Request: fold
Amino acid sequence: MPCKYIFVTGGVASSLGKGILSASLGRLLASRGVRVTIQKLDPYINVDPGTMNPYEHGEVYVTQDGAETDLDLGHYERFLGVETSQTNNVTTGRIYFDVISKERQGAYLGKTVQVIPHITDEIKSHIYALGNSDDIDVVIVEVGGTVGDIESLPYIEAIRQMRYEVGRKDTCSIHLTLVPFLAAAGELKTKPTQHSVKMLSESGLWPDIIACRSEFPLDSSIKQKIAQFCNVEVEDVIASLDAETIYEVPLLMREEGLDERVIQKLDLQTQTLDLEEWKAFVSAVKEPSQEVTIALVGKYVEHHDAYKSIAEAFVHAGAKNDTKVVIKWVQSESVTRENVKELLEGCSGVLVAPGFGDRGIEGKVEAVTYAREQNIPFFGICLGMQCSVVEVARNLCGWKEANSTEFDEASSKPVIDLMDEQRTIEDKGGTMRLGSYDCTLTKGSHAFKAYGNKDITERHRHRYEFNNTYKDELEAVGLLATGVHPSRNLVEIVELKDHPWFVGVQFHPELKSTVSTPHPLFVDFVAASLKHQSSRRSQTSQASQSASNKAPLSQEPISP
Ligand code: GLN
Reply:
């Protein structure tokens, strides 16, 4: 059966949730046995988001093959439970880079190189690259940006051409718009949707299905109006209401019949829908029996998208522990020795986040000291792990000058240092240690217990490494290297002996956490945090018990 294509565009406003809609539709099709993958087309000129600031772009999601990609790919993996790769994310920068490289090689045989057909051909070839694989039935293509943006025009044009090349019956176009509620008029307004569809059709693309993001339910008259003005059947107007959790969206889309409309239009052969596991997960997320607060110490905490995968990994691990994980976002720049107790008190776990550059580093190191000394479960990820090595070097080895050479090139104790192969690299884009690497765990370690396995693979994105020169001395004070790259001897995990749960990882475990496979380290960290919480509570109640036992006289009512 030839591969079929679903195109998802957005109109009226950005941030309507095309990524979640695409991932939800993918989940619904996959739950009927359809083999789905999702591709994101990004209209910006950066070759990839790897060089972009998290304030601009949110988290950079890294695939197993080492591509630095849009955070929507994280949603695709979390919802579908299948790995993506470089092919799943295309940017305008990448398209132009490839076209210009070919032009320099003389590949266009003297022709004038133009947006149509050369850029649009290049876009199509990236989409077909996924569709032509034998194990894919459906490619969902999400176009970034909003219809009407100059930058997304070549993508819309490429899709228009594809609908003729592949055949209309094997393609489906879904347009996600906003139906706002005007309080003054007391009603939902369809005009922005009408205009957005009109604009899309001016580029030659008519939507088959219109998904309407709205804060209130769309009654049948609103749906009929949209259907009439936008040239679709009323069943093809799908309401996309705000959900309590993003993981509920597949269930809401199911209720609206989105999957059935798509299946009918594409004439897909499917099995019976099985959403039982998904539903069980959603109820675990919505109705947990307990709560635990974990601090996330990082410098981008005002911008939660910068830590998207970490926050989602906590949702997965929370559900597995029947717990709601409440994240206390702690700005690392604000943490000092004086206020660390006040900021972290009441948190049952401390996660020190990944990052680049020296802003907020000393605050992160203070947070590590606090978690280490107070026996609070600690999880350091990438830069967070590097900070834990610096902390132990400074405070347990007594090397006050210990640092990463990222922050102090002249440090006399460079416990974290550049890898040799990084020293000569000058280009910033795509030059870090990226993608999947093997790691061998030490039996008996927390990591080994969590994974239940000695050999693991995790994804990386960093330039600096644990400096093996100091390994023996750090181990002597209790910081053990419990995960090591098998052939290159790179330290990938450190753990503190005689601490309830102190684990620093050089990789990014959050990137591999999905609904169907919550990440074992996050699951174990949340479990350790719960344990800490209950022991703290029983200590407090014992303390108040003994206080009230000790002072019965002052509690006695004074008789007149
Ligand atoms: N800045 C550190 C490095 O490049 C850590 C990177 C990260 O946390 N992803 O090694």
Observations:
- The CA atoms of residues 310 and 510 lie 5 Å apart.
